[in-house]
Amino acid sequence: MIGERPDFWLASLGGYDLGSPRMCFSVKRLKGAGDSDCLLVRIQPPLSAQPFGLKDRSIDFLILEPRSVWLFARTKAWPIDVLFCRPVIKDIATRERIEFYETQTLGEGELYRTENEAQAKMDEMRDFMETHRPKAPVVPVSLLRYPTSDVPDFWLITRIGFDLGVKRCFRLRQIVVADDTGYLLVRIEPPFSIEPLEVRETHVEMLVLQPYSVSTLVPDIIAWPVEVAFEVSLVADIDTRKHVDSHQVLTLGIGELHPKEELARTALNTRKLQHD
Question: What residues make up the domain containing 50?
Answer without folding.
Answer: 8-132
